[in-house]
Amino acid sequence: MCKFDCERCGLCCQKVRGNRFFDLETTPEGDCIHYDHATRLCRIYDHRPIYCRVDDFYDLHVKPAMTREEYHQKIHAICRELQFEQGLNDLKRGKG
Ligand code: SF4
Ligand code: SF4
Where are the domains of the chain? Predict the structure, then answer.
C-alpha cells in the first residue's frame, strides 16, 4: 500500500477552528491545541483522530468512491493550496 507522503508543513493543524469535522480544542488563534509550533508536529500523533489520518480516513470513508492514489492527489492539492497561501512552496518531502 502506498502511504500518504506528508511534507510536514503543519498547516492543516493550524486555523482549524470551524472546520466541518474538527472537534478538538483550539488555541485563541484557532490552531489545534495538540499542534507543536516549534517542531511542526502533532503532540498526540499516535492517538490523533481519524480525520487527521489520511490513509485510515480513506479506508473508512472514501475507498468506494476513488482509488487511494486519486485520494492522495486530492489531499496534496489541498496541501499545495495551503502552502501557496502561506508562501511555503519549497518544502522538502517527508516520509509521511
Ligand atoms: S503536507 Fe499536507 S497533510 Fe502534511 S502537514 Fe502539510 S498540509 Fe498537513
Ligand atoms: S490532532 Fe494532531 S494531527 Fe490532528 S489537527 Fe491536532 S495537531 Fe494536527
Answer: 11-86
